[in-house]
Design brief:
This protein has 379 residues and is an alpha+beta fold. Helix content is 52%, strand content 15%. The two termini are 27 Å apart. The structure holds coenzyme a persulfide (COS).
């Protein structure tokens, strides 16, 4: 077993860290306040190769492994979890899904632009009445011969308005249950495609989350991903990898909060000495660092299993379950260490605490991760 990162891994980590510190940190508080999507920064991330990291270079990707992706996600998320969720969805749901299950034509037409970050993608599974219970899709994709006619509503769609390409999960044949579901590629310009209201969220306020409405949208058959009825499995397979991205986001939120707390504890004085010299604070730092290390190892293990073509379903669920839990715990302790300063926006930790919560909800709640893990254990 080798815990040493390669030169390439260290270079990716360093590049992502520098970008986050230089380009994302200035303005992150304002973007959070104003609910402003980091459009300019996402463009730069595309130029740096962060939007299609794992895609084969022949489709304009970075050709990197999942370990590099985890390292970069951690660094970006330390500073701006709104930018990192756009990065995560584009990389591990949209690009990965298209590269692994799309046709050559779909890869030429969509993946090549998505991998460069010239356009970004969205993954549309959740509905007003189907979040965890993902087989209960109410959005319909009626088979009309050479096209599907799509009607319905999707909710809480990350990159909802900023995306140009949407992977939409919809029910074609309700009698077949989950085997009657299809995954379709939609362009925002298609007639009948309407971007609905923007959500006013607790955290990741810079990310743009919308509902989407489809009214008789004609989607050509060549835009279906995989065989007829493959849509649900497509969603499950992409989410299995997506969870490594969100686990790494949670890890980054935790390590960002911890690093700020460590630095603050060496500056702030109470009772005549730096608070880092008080055991109450030292014990908090020790717990935070231990939790972060454990979460990082789970993320890297899931990435390693994926990179070596082994089953990573349980590992990615464990990584997401644990990293999201400790992101909450660590960020709450970070606010506590900062005291009154932690409760105001200027010191970043209150934002990280708000951002942490969503990692226990999206791409499968903690309860769903426990279903996935226990099913694997009991197989
Ligand atoms: N990879 C490949 N196939 C999978 C899979 C995976 N990780 N998980 C399930 N499947 C397949 C099953 O093998 C089954 O296919 P067959 O009937 O051909 O064997 C099919 O999908 C249905 O699976 P299952 O019967 O287990 O479905 P359930 O309704 O019991 O749901 C869970 C399974 C709960 C795991 C699933 O609905 C889920 O992950 N829900 C959460 C969805 C989510 O993350 N929502 C957030 C939206 S994205 S922000």
């Amino acid at each position: 077993m080798n815990f040493k990162l390669t030169e390439e891994h260290l270079a990716v980590q360093e590049a992502a860290r520098e970008f986050a510190q230089n380009e994302l940190l200035p303005g992150v508080i304002e973007r959070d306040n104003q609910q402003k999507f980091p459009a300019e920064q996402i463009k730069q991330m595309g130029e740096l190769g962060l939007m299609g990291m794992m895609v084969d270079p022949k489709y304009n990707g970075g050709g990197m492994d999942t370990i590099s992706y985890v390292l970069a996600m951690e660094e970006i998320s330390k500073v701006d979890a709104s930018a990192s969720v756009a990065m995560s969805v584009n990389n591990s749901l949209v690009c990965w899904g298209l590269e692994n299950f799309g046709t050559e034509e779909q890869k030429e037409k969509y993946l090549k632009r998505l991998a460069l970050g010239k356009v970004i993608g969205a993954f549309c599974l959740s509905e007003p009445e189907a979040g965890s219970d993902a087989t209960s899709q109410k959005t319909t994709a009626e088979d009309k011969g050479d096209h599907y006619l799509v009607n319905g509503t999707k909710n809480w769609i990350t990159n909802g308005n900023s995306a140009s390409v949407y992977l939409v999960i919809a029910q074609t044949d309700p009698e077949k249950g989950h085997r009657g579901i299809n995954a379709l590629i939609m362009d925002k310009e298609m007639d009948g495609f309407v971007v609905g209201k923007k959500e006013d969220k607790l955290g990741i306020r810079g990310s743009d989350t919308h509902s989407l409405m489809f009214s008789d949208v004609k989607v050509p058959k060549e835009n279906r991903i995989g065989d007829d009825g493959f849509g649900f499995k497509f969603a499950m397979k992409t989410l299995t990898g997506g969870r490594i991205g969100i686990a790494s986001q949670a890890l980054g939120i935790a390590s960002g909060a911890y690093e700020l707390s460590l630095a603050y504890s060496k500056e702030r004085k109470a009772f005549g000495k730096e608070i880092s010299k008080h055991q109450a604070i030292q014990f908090k730092l020790a717990d935070m660092a231990t939790q972060i290390d454990a979460a990082r190892l789970l993320c890297l293990k899931a990435a390693y299993l994926k990179d070596t073509d082994q089953n990573y379903s349980k590992a990615s669920a464990m990584a997401k379950l644990y990293a999201s839990q400790i992101a909450m715990e660590v960020s709450i302790e970070a606010v506590q260490i900062h005291g009154g300063y932690g409760y105001v926006k200027e010191y970043h930790v209150e934002r990280l605490m708000r951002d942490a919560k969503i990692t226990q909800i999206y791409e499968g709640t903690s309860e769903i991760q426990k279903i996935v893990i226990s099913r694997e254990l009991l197989k």
